[in-house]
């Protein structure tokens, strides 16, 4: 790893984490149900979909046509159907590995004309049918490893005209002839058929008529009784991997192996004399990987002895003087004997990591051409001044994860070309002045995860070329005012500092990326965080994280400091603010593109904080106890593209808020307690239908309220009944209320008694019906309806004749009504309990409300039963015009007979006989007939 490459990689990670340049395609119209979109820094990047680890049993039906890469791995797919992928003309990469696929329909990939890589490994396929890969003319890599493939149709690979790499390892192929169709592909370069059931691998069994362009052949993890390449069918073969295999190579032919430059024999069960015989034939070999070796091949440059545990291994390296790269990782080595590497004057890269070395091997001192040395993951405890005395060309030195506790001043003094030094994860508590004098060309220095507690003044003054420095620690590192003095080229600094520190960063004029972790376990007398940053005018990236989750120190980034850092583009504060920052915090930072504030209490956040940030493109406010997004509607965030609001307390979202964010293309609202009712109907509809903003994992948002919806999915809530026009609904509702009020008022004023009567009529009807069924007689012959002021006439004239002389049973309300019973119920029972109703009509009768009700009730019975039950008796002459207001009375007089007391004169006996005759008549209909003569009678004429 070069210094520039390491530094740039760190920078790129920072940019990616801030989600600044996220550009989803505008055609992605809503959140996907089972996939998430993976973004790239590149503004014109293709669309990558990740649908892995979702427990899917079928291919999602909402894969966008614009997708270029789709991951469906680590699911529970069992079958691929022809229609599963539709028309995905732009798809280039498809991962289907680690499922349970047993069958793939022919033509399932027929429309994937752009697909270049297909992974179907770790499944349960048994057969490769004829048209399985139809349409994949652009495919260059096919991975079918770790299946149960036993049969390959001769035409299975015919469509794969561009295939370069085929991986068929760990299947159940039994005959080498099974791979004959593969070797006929014109562009095949790499073939892996390791760990199959081949008993032999001989080129004569392949029966190829033409040569193959194969360059790499992997036949590892196999047991071959015979292995031979005896025909000129692999003229371009450069590498063969026999790792962990047992075989007998029959008649290795030198001319046929003249292009072999790499052979891997790691952990093979092959006699060493046979390996030597093979090596003599492969006289062009440049890279060798094996357990035991002798370096007698003059062209050999790379030797990989990884995972070897030969105790005599070092002794066999003495003759390997021509090597340029030597890998001896994981060899259980505790010490490298002197002289093992001394002859390797050309060695440029030496990897001795993951062993048990306790010190730097002595032979390294003689490797003057060494450029890359890896000693990480060992048990080295000390570094001596002579360890690197002659490695003056060393450019990269990796010593991380050892037990180095201290450094001497002279340890790196001769490393004039060193650019990368990794001493992380050691036990360093002091540097012993090692960096006060160099290395002068060092650009990358990682001292993180050590035991240092203080950085003295000038400790790095010899590192004038340093661009990257990491001094982060699990402990707080106290820094002094001149700790970073002289580091004029430093671009990136990661440090763990006390909450209050006194460092003066005046010398870091080129610092662009500063990440600081603040602790409270150590405090200096300094003025607090941010105070020493006033001079960092070039800073673009600033990350401040408070490690103590229980801190109670109020913090507000000094406006003066941010005013100086006018080039600041990325600001991250985590667990730092106790409440919302003051509105003027960023008033001097209009260039800010990304702002992240996490783990704070922003429940009172207002729009003022964002008003100066017209260029803000990425905003992360996760884990901040936010309850509302109203502040976004008032903030000027027209350039915002990425918004993260996960892990807050948002329950309801007004979709109109996003109208104030016209450039928003990515939205993350995961893990909020959403309310699943009509208050979120607009937001739900917006997520499903908007054609610009991708809502990350929107279909996984769950309901927290109301209780009966808890655990359900927010986007599964049915919003159809929420979409009635509110104005129309209010109009209809108010109109109905008004009409109902008017109707109720009308009924109450004009028809309330009719309703009451109707109720009692119904009861009387039921009562009368039951009586008729039982055959019980009426209680009375007649009910007398009269006004109380005519009661004297009734008792003086009527009762003595009708009851005394004629013997009729009469019902009178003053005498026969049941006390305590509702009067209307008494009237109803009296009328329906009597054969006839006699109405004694006078001026006072007409004016009486109750008398009017009685005659109405009697008329109701008349019309209901169609019986002659009503007898009208006028006590006085009443002109017709006086009857006009009494519509019902006039109507009855036109159709019914009546008797007049004034007309009886002196002949009262005839009058009472007529009454008796009326009472004596049956109940048949005699409408409009005189009770005595059978003639119609007219109403009384006006006097």
Automatic annotation (TrEMBL):
Localization per record: Membrane
Signal sequence bounds: 1-29
Membrane topology field: Single-pass type I membrane protein
PROSITE patterns: LRR (PS51450), TIR (PS50104)
Alphabetized InterPro entries for the sequence: Cys-rich_flank_reg_C, Leu-rich_rpt, Leu-rich_rpt_typical-subtyp, LRR_dom_sf, TIR_dom, Toll_tir_struct_dom_sf
Family per similarity comment: Belongs to the Toll-like receptor family.
Taxonomic superkingdom: Eukaryota
Gene3D superfamilies: Ribonuclease Inhibitor, Toll/interleukin-1 receptor homology (TIR) domain
Single annotated GO MF: signaling receptor activity
GO BP annotations, alphabetical order: inflammatory response; innate immune response; signal transduction
Organism: Sparus aurata (Gilthead sea bream)
Any single GO CC term annotated in Swiss-Prot or TrEMBL for this entry: plasma membrane
Primary location recorded for the protein, binned into one broad class: membrane
Residue ranges of the TM segments: 726-751
Domain TIR positions: 778-919
Compositional bias of kind Low complexity: 923-934
Keywords assigned by UniProt, alphabetized: Glycoprotein, Immunity, Inflammatory response, Innate immunity, Leucine-rich repeat, Membrane, Receptor, Repeat, Signal, Transmembrane, Transmembrane helix
UniProt-recorded name of the protein: TIR domain-containing protein
Disordered as annotated region, ranges: 923-943
């Amino acid at each position: 790893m070069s210094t520039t490459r390491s530094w740039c990689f760190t920078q790129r990670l920072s940019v990616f984490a801030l989600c600044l340049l996220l550009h989803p395609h505008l055609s992605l119209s809503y959140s996907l149900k089972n996939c998430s979109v993976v973004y790239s820094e590149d503004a014109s990047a293709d669309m990558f979909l990740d649908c892995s680890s979702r427990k899917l049993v079928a291919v999602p039906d909402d894969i966008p046509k614009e997708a270029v890469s789709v991951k469906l791995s680590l699911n529970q797919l069992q079958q691929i159907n022809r229609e599963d992928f539709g028309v995905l003309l732009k798809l280039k990469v498809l991962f289907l590995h680690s499922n349970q696929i047993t069958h793939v329909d022919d033509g399932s990939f027929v429309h994937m004309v752009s697909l270049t890589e297909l992974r179907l490994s770790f499944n349960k396929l048994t057969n490769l049918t004829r048209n399985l890969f139809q349409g994949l003319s652009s495919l260059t890599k096919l991975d079918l490893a770790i299946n149960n493939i036993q049969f390959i149709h001769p035409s299975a690979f015919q469509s794969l005209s561009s295939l370069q790499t085929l991986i068929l390892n760990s299947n159940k192929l039994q005959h080498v002839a099974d791979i004959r169709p593969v070797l006929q592909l014109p562009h095949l370069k790499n073939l892996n058929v390791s760990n199959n059931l081949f008993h032999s691998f001989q080129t004569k069994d392949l029966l190829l008529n033409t040569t193959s362009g194969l360059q790499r052949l992997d036949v590892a993890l196999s047991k071959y009784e015979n292995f031979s390449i005896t025909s000129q069918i692999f003229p371009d073969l450069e590498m063969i991997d026999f790792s962990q295999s047992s075989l007998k190579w029959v008649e290795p032919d030198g001319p046929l192996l003249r292009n072999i430059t790499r052979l891997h024999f790691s952990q093979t069960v092959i006699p060493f004399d046979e390996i030597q015989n093979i090596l003599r034939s492969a006289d062009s070999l440049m890279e060798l990987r094996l357990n035991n070796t002798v370096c007698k091949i003059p062209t050999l440059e790379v030797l990989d002895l990884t995972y070897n545990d030969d105790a005599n291994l070092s002794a066999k390296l003495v003759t390997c003087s021509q090597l340029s790269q030597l890998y001896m990782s994981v060899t259980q080595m505790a010490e490298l004997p002197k002289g093992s590497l001394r002859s390797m004057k050309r060695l440029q890269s030496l990897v001795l990591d993951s062993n048990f070395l306790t010190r730097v091997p002595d032979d390294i001192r003689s490797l003057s051409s060494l450029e890359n040395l890896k000693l990480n993951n060992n048990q080295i405890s000390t570094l001596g001044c002579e360890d690197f005395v002659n490695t003056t060309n060393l450019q990269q030195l990796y010593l991380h994860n050892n037990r180095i506790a201290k450094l001497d001043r002279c340890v790196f003094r001769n490393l004039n070309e060193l650019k990368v030094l990794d001493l992380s994860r050691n036990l360093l508590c002091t540097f012993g002045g090692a960096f006060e004098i160099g290395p002068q060309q060092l650009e990358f220095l990682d001292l993180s995860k050590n035991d240092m507690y203080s950085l003295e003044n000038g400790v790095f003054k010899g590192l004038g070329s340093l661009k990257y420095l990491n001094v982060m620690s699990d402990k707080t590192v106290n820094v002094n005012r001149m700790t970073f003095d002289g580091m004029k080229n430093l671009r990136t600094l990661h440090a763990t500092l006390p909450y209050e520190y006194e460092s003066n960063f005046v010398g870091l004029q080129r610092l662009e990326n500063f990440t600081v972790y603040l602790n409270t376990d150590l405090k200096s007398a300094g003025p607090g965080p941010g105070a020493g940053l006033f001079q960092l005018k070039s800073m673009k990236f600033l990350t401040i994280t408070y490690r103590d989750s229980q801190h109670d120190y109020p913090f507000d980034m000094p406006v003066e400091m941010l005013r100086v850092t006018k080039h600041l583009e990325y600001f991250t504060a985590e667990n730092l603010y106790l409440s919302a920052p003051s509105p003027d915090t960023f008033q001097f930072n209009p260039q800010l593109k990304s702002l992240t504030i996490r783990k704070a209490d922003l429940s009172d956040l207002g729009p003022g904080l964002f008003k100066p940030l017209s260029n803000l493109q990425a905003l992360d406010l996760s884990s901040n106890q936010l309850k509302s997004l109203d502040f976004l509607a008032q903030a000027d965030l027209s350039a915002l593209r990425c918004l993260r609001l996960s892990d807050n307390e948002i329950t309801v979202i007004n979709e109109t808020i996003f109208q104030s964010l016209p450039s928003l293309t990515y939205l993350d609202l995961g893990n909020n307690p959403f309310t699943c009712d009509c208050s979120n109907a607009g937001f739900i509809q917006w997520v499903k239908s908007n054609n610009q903003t991708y809502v990350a994992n929107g279909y996984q948002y769950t309901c927290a309220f109301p209780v009966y919806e808890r655990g359900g999915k927010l986007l599964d809530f049915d919003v159809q009944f929420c979409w009635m026009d509110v104005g129309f609904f209010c109009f209809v509702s108010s109109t109905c209320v008004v009409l109902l009020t008017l109707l109720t008022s009308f009924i109450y004023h004009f028809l309330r008694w009719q309703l009451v009567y109707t109720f009692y009529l119904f009861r009387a009807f039921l009562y009368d019906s039951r009586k008729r069924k039982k055959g019980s007689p009426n209680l009375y012959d007649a009910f007398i309806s009269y006004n109380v002021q005519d009661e004297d006439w009734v008792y003086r004239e009527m009762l003595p004749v009708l009851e005394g002389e004629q013997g009729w049973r009469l019902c009178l309300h003053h005498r026969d009504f049941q006390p305590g019973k509702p009067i209307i119920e008494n009237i109803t029972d009296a009328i329906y309990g009597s054969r006839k109703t006699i109405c004694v009509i006078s001026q006072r009768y007409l004016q009486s409300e109750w008398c009017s009700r009685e005659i109405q009730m009697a008329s109701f019975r008349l019309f209901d039963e169609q019986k002659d039950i009503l007898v009208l008796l006028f006590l006085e002459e009443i002109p017709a015009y006086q009857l006009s207001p009494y519509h019902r009375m006039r109507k009855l007089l036109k159709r019914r007979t009546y008797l007049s007391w004034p007309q009886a004169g002196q002949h009262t006996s005839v009058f009472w006989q007529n009454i008796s005759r009326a009472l004596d008549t049956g109940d048949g209909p005699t409408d409009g007939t005189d009770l005595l003569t059978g003639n119609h009678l007219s109403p009384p004429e006006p006097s």
